[in-house]
Every structure is written in structure tokens, then in C-alpha cells.
């Protein structure tokens, strides 16, 4: 028998939920100034609380759209601020919050839920699979040069944070989105505003101007390293460019900022071409590849219908989804689309593994080799690799 109740919080309860979440990640409660900003990233009706009768757990979401292979933008819920009080963990509170939240998404017609996981083992059991990855890339500014044939780019304008927060959302909204990118609703920009404003050193934006107006930006701050205070890191927290010229133009600007030894770009796709712009690619380093968005196919038929597929013989998948059993069943995936299907399946996989395949980040054959896909027809595996393969690596670049 459950000893707690789950319900949607009223707006007047959001601050308590925010403080509870912050406590679970070992942050102090929001002070009044922070709460002015934080309140704006709590979407009304988007926060659940667990009570026993005190508030002991919480999870929230905001609405956005996810770009899938082929370019369609599909309704998604960004899931975040999940936490359970340390003295009430491991008694099913998270499971109850996740179940209630996913059933709510399904009822509202949300196709995907996305989250960034604090720990990798938590969310697979709820159907979330690791679907995008990012890389952290650094450059030795003193020794790095762009190749002479690197695209030239246009003017770059330096903005302070207030102005950046006015300009960058519009630039971002106008960009073409690769698979895995999402729209950034107002609530997300307010979260970034809070994070950027509490940064000790000033945050700036370099905005690139292309032929049609602003078409890229790099948000960054410059910090001394603790071990070597005279060494300065230029830390790029957000970098987007709408064209090759904008991307090269932003790098040319960053490499020209004085009193900087090292440039670190915190999140770019794993197929990012930065090293191809450098005259000597050894002046740049991939510091790390990290797990980014975990996606949950809330509505498997709609999700499979929304994306485009590569050229190969059709494959029938048998999908099983213990939490949202309406998703379980057979699906025929072919170059011209996907639909529910009866009959023998070539591959059997759970909804978590399907999420890992869906944006093209993991090949079905790699997952089968790891024992995560049951292969009933060996010819289905190479066909599935081609059907789900994508031209570019999935990446979001939006962290929450
Ligand atoms: C999207 C985001 O917001 S990420 C941020 C997540 N929040 C945090 O990391 C804050 C600190 N941690 C917490 O608040 C809690 O420990 C939570 C939210 C991670 C888990 O809450 P709990 O109420 O303890 O989880 P619950 O008891 O429902 O466990 C559900 C299952 O997940 C497992 N699980 C829970 N936490 C963890 C963990 N940290 N690592 C591995 N497994 C876990 C449980 O063992 C259980 O497994 P089972 O299904 O096999 O029985």
C-alpha cells in the first residue's frame, strides 16, 4: 500500500517544490531574488508533488517540440527538477511520480518526454533511453589558427547579458534544427537566465551577422583556473550557428579574444567540424563525450510515423512497454514510413532500447551485440541499421 499521495501543485506551491528539488541536489533554497527568476521557469500545471502528508518528492515538465530525423517537430515534454527527500528515498516515490507523469503525457497527446539524467542507472526502467550525446571540445588559443580556406563569415557583435537574452532566443528560433534539437520555450530561457546571472564572471554573447541578419551566437564567460590563476579559460556555454560561415566566423572571433589561453566549448554534436577548421587539428582536443538527452517514446505509433527512414528492406519490430502497454506490439518500418503490423517480427526490443535507436545515435546491430535486441531474423539487423541511420549525429544542445 502506498503511504503517499501524488498531485499536481498549484502555482503557490512551486517555491516549496523548487526548494525541495534544490535540497535533493545539495543546493541551498532559492533566495528571494533567485525565486523571481526561478518562478518563471515553472510552467503552471507542470509540477507534481508527493505528500506523506509533507511534500517529500517532486517532478516537473515544460512543453516544447523535438526535431526528429527528417525535420518534423513533434510535441515533447522536458522533464526536470526531479527529487525525493533523502529520508524518503527507495520506497517508490520516484516510480509513482514517473508513472503519473507519463500517464498524464499520454493523455495530453505528448509524443516524447526528454530529460537529462543525474545518474545513468535511474531512468531506463521508466522507458527513457540515451538518445543524444555531446562532446566537450577545447582549443589551445595561442597555437590554434584557422585554415586559410576556412569560410570567412560576417561581422561579429559583442553583447552584454541583458542584450544577449533579448537577441539570442530569436536567433535560436530561426535556426534549422538537427535531430535531437528542441524548441526553447520561454521557461527554458528563464532557467538559462538564472544560471547565467549567478555566474561570478560576466557572461557575454558573440552574435554573428550573416547576409540575412543574426544567424549564430556563442554565449561565454572567461574565468581564471584555480590552480593557475594567470591562466584564463574562455568557457562557451551555448554555441549555435545557422551556416558554415557563421560557425567559422564565431570561431575566428573566439580565437581572437585577448588574455585567453584556452577555449572550452561545453556542448557540441559529436560530428562537430571544429577540428577541420584548424590548420593543425592537434591544437584542439575532444575532452569528453557525455550522455545528453534521454528520450521516452510516450506514443510509439506517432513517434515512429513522425520520422523518415533510410533505404533498406522493411523490418518488423516487436516492441514491449511494461509501463505504457498500449505501445506494445508489432511495427513495420520501411523507407516510406512506419505503421502497426501483425505477423512475425525480425527484431524484438523494449521501448527503452527503441529510444536509443530512434534518433540514430546507436545502431541496432551494436545494441544486438550488447544483448539488448533479440534478433529473430538475421537479415533484419543490417536493414534496421540502414532504416534508422541518420545523416548527422543527433544532438540537442539544450540542457535543463
Ligand atoms: C531529470 C532530473 O531531474 S535528474 C535529477 C534526479 N534527482 C536526483 O538525482 C536528486 C537526488 N536523488 C533523488 O532525489 C532520489 O534518489 C531519486 C529521485 C533519484 C530516486 O527517488 P526514489 O524515490 O528513491 O526512487 P524509487 O524508490 O521510486 O526507485 C525506483 C527505482 O529506481 C531505482 N533507483 C532510484 N534511485 C536510483 C539511483 N540513484 N541509482 C540507481 N537506481 C536508483 C530504485 O532502486 C528502484 O528500482 P526498482 O524499480 O528496481 O525497484
UniProtKB/TrEMBL annotation:
Residues that coordinate or bind acetyl-CoA: 82-84, 90-95, 118-119
MF terms in GO: aminoglycoside N-acetyltransferase activity
Gene3D superfamilies registered for this protein in UniProt: 3.40.630.30, SCP2 sterol-binding domain
Species annotation: Amycolatopsis vancoresmycina DSM 44592
GO biological process, one term: aminoglycoside antibiotic catabolic process
Protein name: N-acetyltransferase domain-containing protein
Domain N-acetyltransferase: 4-151
Active site location: 123, 400
Family: Belongs to the acetyltransferase Eis family.
Keywords: Acyltransferase, Transferase
Subunit structure: Homohexamer; trimer of dimers.
Key word ATP-binding present: no
Top-rank taxon: Bacteria
InterPro entries: Acetyltransf_17, Acetyltransferase_Eis, Acyl_CoA_acyltransferase, Eis_dom, GNAT_dom, NAcTrfase_Eis, SCP2_sterol-bd_dom_sf
Keyword Signal: no
